[in-house]
Design goal:
Blueprint (H helix, E strand, L loop, with lengths): L5 H12 L5 E7 L2 E4 H23 L5 H10 L4 H4 L10 H17 L5 H14 L3 H20 L11 H12 L3 H16 L8
Antiparallel strand pairs: 1-2
């Protein structure tokens, strides 16, 4: 297989740098929104921090390198599609079709073995058909709730109460006792601070 040239590698690096430009709906600080790049970095770090707990719960080794790669690349399609809010209630099927088309076009054009690796990781994450993917999806779902708590943004602008948050969070975080416990802690802290729409 032909080795990629400097220009090809530069184009990939330059394109992925644009993930910094895509804003999420939750805040990074009380003054500004979080970028998708910040979100992806924090998912990778949280998976690393919780990896030993995840392995203890699973009773077997889990591929941390694969998990971190999924964290870092799973939202790259949002450079092209944007990041719709989980609360927007849009057409999930259409969102999935748009993201799949971008993944096939962008990842399929990567040089060398990267094309196959990125597409495989993307589909593994989207399907959630491995323990690693399900855990990354759980951390991904937990993260915006964490940031809404830490920044004091809360859920008034959604608006959502604790029960609505449970319906969104629990299907993903219940893959792990540790993630479920962390979510319960976030929920309790948010209730104590009056961060839910029905409690402000």
């Amino acid at each position: 297989m032909r080795e990629p040239g400097v220009r090809e590698l530069f184009e990939v690096i330059a394109h992925t740098a644009r993930l910094r430009e895509v804003e999420r709906h939750n805040h990074a600080t009380p003054e500004r929104r979080e970028s998708v790049a910040e979100h992806s970095w924090h998912l990778a770090l949280v998976c690393w921090l919780l990896h030993a707990e995840f392995e203890r719960e699973a009773g077997r080794p889990l591929d941390l390198a694969r998990m971190i790669k999924m964290c870092l690349m799973h939202d790259l399609v949002e450079i092209d599609t944007g990041d719709p809010s989980a609360w927007s209630g849009g057409d999930r099927g259409e969102k999935a079709r748009r993201e799949e088309a971008v993944a096939l076009r962008r990842f399929g054009a990567l040089p060398g073995d990267l094309a196959g690796e990125f597409l495989e990781l993307w589909h593994e994450y989207e399907r959630g058909d491995t323990a690693e993917a399900r855990l990354v999806r759980g951390v991904d779902r937990l993260n915006p709730a964490l940031m809404r708590l830490l920044t004091g943004q809360g859920w008034h602008g959604v608006p959502a109460g604790a029960e609505e948050l449970d319906r969104l969070q629990l299907p993903r975080v219940e893959v792990s006792g540790t993630l479920t416990a962390l979510y319960r802690h976030i929920r309790e802290q948010a209730q104590e601070r009056g961060l839910f729409a029905s409690e402000g």
